[in-house]
Amino acid sequence: MNTLNRAEQRWILKLLCRDNSIADIVDVTGHSSNTVRRHLARFGEALLATHDKLVRNITPTRRGHAAAVADPVIQPPPRTRLPAAS
User: Fold this and answer.
1) Within the chain, what is the greatest distance between any pair of CA atoms?
2) Where are the beta strands (DSSP E) in 1-86?
3) CB of 33 within 8 A of CB of 26?
4) Cα-based distances in Å from 2 to 5, 23, 35, 48, 51
């Protein structure tokens, strides 16, 4: 089975990050849509595995309740009346 080299893999990911569709990536790179989809799927699996390794055994800490952290209500400045025209 043929594989993409690192430069082609990076190129496909850069194109995807720049909001190109799979059809656009196929047109630009010349690879088939199955190849592009397979590469993106493998990349997603690798990201998931890396995330699972890095986020293991982390204990969550609570910083406060939502009510205590909520922003205070900002009041608009008082209206002032213009003097009557004479």
Assistant:
1) 91
2) none
3) yes
4) 9, 21, 10, 24, 28
Structure tokens of 34? 């199955």
Q: List per-residue pLDDT tens for the chain, 86 residues long.
A: 578 899 999 999 999 999 999 999 999 999 999 999 999 999 999 999 999 898 887 777 776 555 545 555 666 667 777 677 76
Which token pair is 65?
A: 């309740």
CA distance 60 to 57: 10
Instruction: Report how far Cα 42 is from the mean position of its chain's Cα atoms.
Output: 18
Q: CA 84 to CA 42: how far, in whole Å?
A: 74
